[in-house]
Amino acid sequence: MACLWLASLLPLLSPAQQTSLPTSPDPSTQTQPQTPAKDQSAPAQTPTDKDKDKKSTDPNSQGKVVGTSNDRLFYTLPNFLSIENTAQLPPLTTKQKYAVVARGTFDPVQYPWWAFLSAINQADNSEPGYGQGWEAYGKRFGTAAADGIIENFMTAAVLPSLLHQDPRFFQSSKGGFTRRTFYAVSRIFVTRTDSGHSQFNYSEIVGSALSASISTYSYHPRSTYISTPTNPHMFVPSDRTLENTASVWGSQISYDTITIVVKEFWPDIHRKLAKKQKVDTTPTVSPKSSNPIQKP
Length: 296
Fold this sequence. Notes:
Blueprint: H1 49-56, E1 72-73, E2 77-78, E3 82-83, H2 94-105, H3 110-123, H4 134-163, E4 169-170, H5 177-186, E5 190-192, E6 198-200, H6 202-218, E7 224-226, E8 234-236, H7 242-281, E9 284-285, E10 292-293
Parallel strand pairs: 3-4
Antiparallel strand pairs: 1-2, 5-6, 7-8, 9-10
Helix pairs in contact: 2-4, 3-4, 4-6, 5-7, 6-7
């Protein structure tokens, strides 16, 4: 039930030097030589992490955090932590990690997605302790939103910051379908550290387990009695069990695995769609006229 599926140097200015010339020669007047003004230009400053964070909030960057992307899967779903053809990038600061995760987690597209998941759970009577009706739907919506928020922050912000791991997915784009698929799946278990080395992906595996435990044992239904048309005092067992926690954990890992495979091949799909759109909108020229004629 996990859901997935956030940024300047000043120009150097030198004072103008002005030289005053005498209007007429006067041999009795001695001219004092003028000393040129010293260059008062400020030395260039090296951008710091604080400067990067300021740049990351520049409105001209459309909210993009430095070192991340503005990409969206299928032009809709946030894909800000996927990087294509970029092996050398500075590590993200803790503030940047939290910023990019918050940007993706609270993206406007997430709210209808949570509503959709809640509707499915309502129709399937998932977690029957919530019951039915609009109140029950509101509880399911809150549960779906909380599950996604906790899982996103635990796996891409909290643990990556504590363990100095890089939450970004660096696409391979090398080899055939099988090799690239294997690479994408392996990123669930292997990730980069902030220093660029490979390491077991504790952020994903442990982070998803922690998020499953937090959500299951904090706000999911306890055992209760509900009223049904056939049984006014139907007992519903608690969902706060180790079995349910393991099931949620497995679902999150499976969902993240499928998502990361899609992220690997999305640039290829994107380029093909863009190329097709460009071909379809390219005007043709009639042999009898130089005026372009649009395809019907």
